[in-house]
Amino acid sequence: MRRQVVVTEFLKLRRSAVPWVSLAAILCGPAAMALFMWIIRDPARAASLGLLGTKANLTGLEATWTAYGSYLAVIVGASGMLLLAFIVAYLFGREYADGTARNLLALPVDRTWFALGKLAVAAAWWLVLTLIAILEGFLIGWALGLPGYTTGLGLKVVTNTLVAAAASLLLVPVIAWITVWTRSYLAALGFALGMLLLGDVVGHTGWAAWFPWSIVPMMTGMSGPVSAVVPWSSYLVLGLTFFGGTVAVMLQLRYADNP
Amino acid sequence: MPASDTVISTQGLTKHYGRVRAVDGLDLEVRRGEIYGFLGRNGAGKTTTIRMLLGLIRPTSGTITVFGHTVGAGRQDWLRKVGFLVETATAYPNLTVTENLDLQRRLTGAPRAAVSEAIDWLGLAPYADRRAGRLSLGNKQRLSLARALLHAPELVVLDEPANGLDPAGIVEVRELLRGLARDRGVTVFMSSHLLVEVAHLADRIGIVEAGRLVEEAPRDVLAARARDFVRDTFTAAEREEALLTGDLERYFLARTGAAAKADPTVGGAAR
């Protein structure tokens, strides 16, 4: 039955527009970075492109593999905090929007499996999106002929991006809980957006290692220089956030009224 | 009555929403194989009761047992024997009728053939490959009923099953539920705010008002009381109007299909 829960959740996601929307969104990230790289590596081109060229120069990017690779992790980390939150809010929220939650929760299946099934489907699709973003990033980087590529750097880029993806995944059970608690997408999406902004603010206060939504930006350099070593306490905070969110969503589905 | 003949039993079932008493000390007993009509006005507490029966909301106090299992305690394996339709017809709009039912089949452990059987049974074959979001309200209701009956449940809990159906569809569903109880021994617990709907179908009727069971009796007994009430309190014009409504319904059914012949009692509640 557990397998059937996951299979049905995959079917529901596959037949929705979300895979295509999220794929389009994730593809835009590396493509936009590549566009800026393409512009700034040629000052004459930047000058000829007017406002777009000026914006590209203002980013302070260098047209190298080192800079490009580090921004790939930023793109995936930021997408994880917003795009993955959107996917999770959809998976849980659609049951309330379509009125199907009560059909699901009165089935002879342990309700916690629905929560775990949805989170598993979100994690699997997020892994696919992350791998697509990495592949796209490398293909475009090689096509642009950016200088400074080494195998070691390539591995580091892949590792950093996967760590950023995994770290952002640990934040989403909280999104799932807010969706189930409020029985709506909106509060969860507002929360995700608010935490993205708050995480950036807290990141500048010296408490980034302790605030879950500042840790991904700290890891990737989203809101400042990349932290050379992420303290173990940050991984603990992320783990506790994941655990707390998962338990909360399970308890909500199992014990709270689900009218 | 032996305990095994009781399918649903509630004792002192109460649900408060803040200061509002949605259900207030409800004692119910539904027996195996009967059709129990749970009749009440909008807001009387019918849907809240059904949601508590299915474990969707927790009672403030009181107990519910279904097939001898206390609702809300431990694993809800008894739900395997229950088919249900709560309040409005709902389905995944971007999945087809067949896919919606296949989802239900997987989660209830029903055999693969159950999907096509349910589609045929509820007359959904012309729409099998149509997305649920593009179905009419009546066909959505049929889909919800197909979902409820797909896994051959022993108990069917239906909240306003006639919602959205045209008169011919109402008669078809009525026949279907009657057949379920008669031929398969399925117990049906159905709520409605339509007296005529419950009167045609139920073996026993419970009338709920403000969360309390104000009357409960076999249909014939209640029908006799209703006839006396109409005779004693209705004016001649009111009685004529009630008869006319029944005759118009018969005529409509006769003009739109063979449904009226299938159920000669249509529209006869007021007689």
Describe the structure.
- Chain A has 259 residues and is mostly helical.
- Chain A has one domain (2-27, 64-255).
- Chain A has helices at 2-14, 18-40, 43-48, 51-58, 65-97, 101-105, 111-144, 151-169, 172-182, 185-203, 212-220, 232-255.
- In chain A, helix 1 (2-14) crosses helix 7 (111-144), helix 2 packs antiparallel against helix 5 (65-97) and helix 5 (65-97) packs parallel to helix 9 (172-182).
- Chain B is of the alpha/beta class.
- Chain B folds into 2 domains: 3-233, Rossmann fold; 234-271.
- In chain B, 39% of the residues lie in helices and 24% in strands.
- Chain B has a 6-stranded mixed beta sheet with strand order 6-7-8-3-9-10, with helices on both faces. A 4-stranded antiparallel beta sheet of chain B has the order 2-1-4-5, with helices on one face.
- In chain B, a hairpin with a 2-residue loop joins strand 9 and strand 10.
- The A-B interface holds A 1, 4-5, 7-8, 11-12, 15-17, 98-100, 102-110, 255, 257-259 and B 51, 54-58, 75-80, 82, 84, 86, 88, 90-95, 99, 103-104, 106-109, 147.
